[in-house]
Design a protein that fits this description.
Helices cover 62% and strands 10% of the residues. It is an alpha/beta fold. The chain has two domains: 357 residues, Amino acid/polyamine transporter I (Up-down Bundle), CATH 1.20.1740.10; 166 residues, no CATH class. It starts with a strand and ends with a strand.
Length: 659
């Protein structure tokens, strides 16, 4: 269970767990419980087959559309008018071994095991490393911030380039449709983002079968041409890739930037871990996705060797004239699914950022009863849509967007690899030298890919850097402001036992009725109570410290719902528990509190909330960061609405906190 921090104040949201106090053993135990939850879900009807189908549709949508443009862009980068065996086999070898090393070994075999309570992504990895260190480390914090920020850039670019590249295929069917490519792309994207509120479970049911058909089509198209030129199977020999790199160092460096487009869904794969679980993701990868991708790339290479004139659009040229319209329609559907992968990952990343105190607490809608990882965050959804539409209208073609794509993906992957080294060293207790040796191949490859993509900075690569920089700045401002507010408030914190002891012989006036003081920490006296006593010199004849907890199960049972604990004198502690699928309705839960022994008259009861309002007082850059924090605090959820408190019985006590 986790303490919901919203009750601590409207403008100050603390992390869902205290980073400084959380015990690493208890934390790792919770990871095992999270994995058990996934297996429990399978046994309850959310079967492995259904989850695997959903993973094909959501997790692998992004990487599944890479064949549309990855091989094509890599061939263009060579500058060869008529690509020969050296270029084709060299690029194919690089593509295949990049899929094997980066996606299969790094993400599927290693990072999927580095989960944080069942959730994945760079912020989950950061949390594990942070806990293992046992103290805050600014460099590690910055790694996490910039990694999450670059993923935000990836989440905006992926829908734009994926859908645009597929819709551009209509020009091959009928050139007269060219003017309609942008309007159709924009319409598809708007429809996709409007569907998100329905949840990834419902989307997976719709997209899963379509995506399975897509991967089967990829494999079938590849086999068709592979039979014509089976010599491309030589690309499995890494010597071809190495020879291409060494024989054409200048050109090869540019080609690597395009080759990396083949693994653009790797980080989304890790970020979507909480949506489906480890086993379904692995089964989908080895059972369908990886074979289909490899077969298609080999088929494109075989076709170019047999028909060099088709290299200009090597993917759509694989289809016959009669099948081309159907392939374009299927590709468009698949690219919509590709967008879903990073959108789902963005929701998971945003929730992780909120839990770690990097973003203000926003309203999270749970969309599937059996999976706590399936969520919807409206603010993130609509901000992403605005960014995606802007990218489409600014770049207007998938080739132009390809230049902007690589930096965000490679940058995130490099930062993830660095955190992975720290994870092996600190969490898995391997010697640092051994951890470096294990991770060095991935880190070196990704660093080379990043350097290659940086050559396209002026052509559009600056976009994810600017987006990432802006997001990182916002996250830093919120984290910094939260720490300052926490430090100010901590100086005035009073423990419940010492407070009750002080109140035994107090001369404060006793007020008839019951007062409920909401607090996120059941061991600390709510600031609203302290201010009430200070200014009104009054204490209710029954004073209740009310804490709301969220369980790791969809619904709380009647036995779990309420705990009432006398603390001595007029003080009691009331804990209300809700499942993660439930809306925390405090007003309704009071009936359970009565059955548990709490006696109160609704008409003589008052709910007290503490509103903390941060005030910017710094100078120069500090003042600028303080103002950003104050502005972001307005996005925080209103606890009165969130907890469904009776508005006519709520008293809010304000508190100004200088930062």
């Amino acid at each position: 269970m986790i303490h919901d921090p919203i009750a601590n104040g409207l403008n100050t949201q603390l992390p869902l767990f205290d980073e400084e106090a959380l015990d690493i053993a208890d934390y790792l135990k919770s990871e095992v419980e999270a994995e058990d939850d996934i297996h429990h879900n399978e046994a309850r009807g959310h079967g492995l087959a259904a989850l695997t189908l959903g993973a094909v549709g959501v997790v692998y949508g992004d990487i599944g559309t890479s064949p549309i443009y990855a091989f094509r862009e890599a061939l263009k980068a060579t500058g060869a008018a008529s690509p020969g065996a050296t270029e084709v086999l060299g690029i194919l070898s690089l593509l295949i071994w990049t899929l094997i090393l980066i996606v299969t070994v790094k993400y599927v075999f290693f990072l999927l095991r580095a989960d944080n309570r069942g959730e994945g992504g760079i912020l989950s990895l950061y949390t594990l490393v942070r806990l293992a260190f046992g103290r805050r480390s600014l460099p590690i914090l910055l790694l996490a911030l910039f990694g999450a920020a670059l993923f935000a850039g990836d989440a905006a670019i992926t829908p734009a380039i994926s859908v645009l590249s597929a819709v551009e295929g209509t020009e091959l069917i009928l050139p007269a449709l060219a003017p309609y490519v942008l309007p159709v792309t924009l319409g598809i994207l708007v429809a996709l983002f409007m569907m998100q509120r329905g949840g990834t479970a419902k989307v997976a049911k719709l997209f899963g079968p379509i995506c399975v058909l897509w991967f089967l089509a990829l494999g079938a198209l590849g086999i068709q041409y592979l039979l014509e030129a089976p010599q491309v199977l030589a690309a499995f020999n890494p010597v071809w890739g190495a020879a291409f790199l060494l024989g054409n160092p200048g050109i090869a460096f540019v080609v690597l930037g395009a080759v990396f487009l083949a693994v653009t869904g790797g980080e989304a794969l890790y970020a979507d871990l909480g949506h489906f679980g480890r086993r379904p993701i692995k089964l989908a990868w080895f059972g369908l996705v990886l074979p289909a991708l490899v077969l298609n790339y080999l088929g494109q290479g075989a076709m170019v060797l047999a028909y060099p004139e088709r290299a200009e659009n090597s993917f759509f040229a694989m289809a016959s004239e009669g099948l081309l319209p159907w392939l374009v329609v299927l590709a468009t559907a698949a690219t919509v699914i590709a967008s879903q992968a990073v959108i789902s990952g963005a929701f998971s990343m945003a929730r992780g950022a909120m839990q770690l105190g990097f973003l203000p607490r926003m309203r999270i809608l749970h969309t599937a009863e059996g999976q706590s990882g399936q969520i919807y965050i409206g603010a993130v959804n609509w901000l992403l849509l605005v960014g995606v539409l802007w990218l489409v209208l600014s770049f207007r073609s998938s080739s132009a967007l390809a230049s902007a794509y690589g930096i965000a993906v490679t940058g995130t992957m490099v930062l993830t690899s660095i955190l992975g080294i720290l994870f092996l060293s600190r969490v898995r207790r391997l010697r640092l030298s051994f951890a470096l040796a294990l991770a060095a191949p991935f880190l070196v490859i990704e660093a080379v890919f990043l350097a290659s993509n940086l050559t396209k900075f002026a052509e559009g690569g600056y976009v994810p850097v600017l987006v990432g920089g802006a997001v990182a700045g916002l996250m830093w401002a919120w984290w910094r402001g939260t720490q300052l507010v926490r430090a100010r408030v901590a100086k005035l914190a009073v423990s419940v036992p010492s407070f009750i002891k002080m109140m035994r012989n107090s001369s404060v006036n006793v007020i008839p009725g019951t007062a409920f003081f909401l607090t996120g920490d059941a061991e600390i006296v709510p600031s609203a109570l302290l201010h009430n006593i200070k200014h009104n010199r009054g204490l209710h004849e029954q004073t209740v410290f009310l804490t709301v907890e969220t369980l790791r199960v969809p619904y709380a049972t009647a036995e779990e719902r309420v705990t009432v604990e006398p603390l001595g004198g007029c003080f009691l502690r009331l804990i209300l528990r809700f499942g993660f699928m439930e809306t925390p309705n405090v007003s309704r839960a009071m009936n359970h509190a009565r059955r548990a022994g709490l006696k109160f008259d609704v008409m003589a009861s008052t709910f007290f909330l503490g509103r903390r309002r941060a005030v910017a007082t710094g100078k120069g850059m500090e003042l600028f960061l303080d103002r950003i924090y104050v502005a972001l605090s307005r996005m925080a959820a209103d606890p009165t609405d969130f907890y469904h408190l009776p508005r006519d019985r709520v008293v809010e006590l304000g508190e100004r906190v200088a930062i």
